[in-house]
Design a protein that fits this description.
49% helix; 14% strand; binds nicotinamide-adenine-dinucleotide; globular; alpha/beta; 2 domains
Length: 259
């Protein structure tokens, strides 16, 4: 399928995991891609892989918490291609600790990257999509935005916030024919999950492998997602097939939240 030929996709967190899988999926389907990340070498490698699909792909250093970085990135896309059709806000981090031990700085860091970063990128592209009278915003939330577990206050709060933010953005874009949706992945095989496994396993006195295999068993499908499985749903949300779908928070979690 080549559903996005001539379109422009801006992806935050494009250097790794779900963001990278989305960048590659849009490139495979013909879109020019602006890859944004703080990890410059990984981000450039992702853009390089995108270019192998015959599209233009730029890698730019962008910290999603910095207003000026986001504005510069959006301006670069507009100067180069004159439009933005797709925004995927995937940049995110996980930190977790029992509530009484969460330092204020850790809370603020997670909220800044996972929620304020999404706000800044949505705010920057919304007027462009309204003017174009088309466009798709896809914000990566989490199953943690719909349910929760202990020692994840800041992560869950940030991801629930993304769902609320997405609904409001969807309301503002709807009259202009543009959409905003959130995707709520379950456990997905990325560097983030490796980090989560190491953190929680250390706290629980088990190995990361034991923690990973227990979490896979919690899921009705009995396994983790691969990043491309999340990217497939993101691509659907950017496609013509989902033009009447907006303001939703879609669980792509192997049945985890419903169970
Ligand atoms: N992996 C999972 O199981 C899972 C589940 C649910 C939701 N998510 C969400 O999916 C998104 C992607 O996570 P992932 O698993 O691919 O993680 P990842 O760690 O593999 O990738 C995250 C990327 O975001 C980048 N990043 C971090 N801080 C940034 C900042 N301030 N500005 C710009 N880029 C920044 C990192 O450099 C990295 O390249 C996150 O929002 C995460 O919360 C992941």
């Amino acid at each position: 399928m080549k559903r996005f030929v001539g379109q422009v996709a801006v992806i935050t967190g494009a250097g790794s995991g779900i963001g990278k899988a989305c960048a590659l999926r849009f490139a495979q389907e013909g879109a020019n891609v602006l890859c944004l990340d703080v990890n410059d070498s990984a981000n450039e490698a992702a853009a390089q892989e995108c270019r192998q699909h015959g599209v233009e792909a730029l890698a730019m250093h962008c910290d999603v918490t910095r207003e000026e970085d986001i504005e510069r990135a959006v301006q670069t896309a507009m100067d180069r291609w004159g439009r933005i059709d797709i925004l995927v806000a995937a940049a995110g981090i996980y930190r977790g600790a029992p509530l009484a031990e969460v330092p204020l700085k850790q809370w603020q860091l997670v909220i800044d990257i996972n929620l304020t970063g999404v706000f800044l990128s949505n705010r920057a592209v919304a007027p462009i999509m309204m003017k174009q009278r088309s466009g798709s915003i896809i914000n990566i939330s989490s199953m943690a935005g719909k349910t929760s577990w202990p020692a994840s206050a800041e992560y869950s709060a940030s991801k629930s916030g993304v769902i609320g933010l997405t609904r409001s953005v969807a309301m503002e874009l709807a009259p202009y024919g543009a959409t905003a949706n959130a995707v709520c992945p379950g456990n997905t095989r990325t560097e983030m999950v490796e980090h989560v496994a190491a953190t929680i396993a250390a706290r629980e006195g088990i190995t990361p492998e034991e923690w990973l295999s227990q979490r896979a068993k919690d899921c009705p499908m009995g396994r983790f997602a691969e990043p491309w499985e999340i990217a497939g749903v993101v691509a659907f949300l950017a496609s013509e097939d989902s033009r009447y779908l907006t303001g939703q928070a879609i669980e792509v979690d192997g049945g985890m939240v419903m169970s």
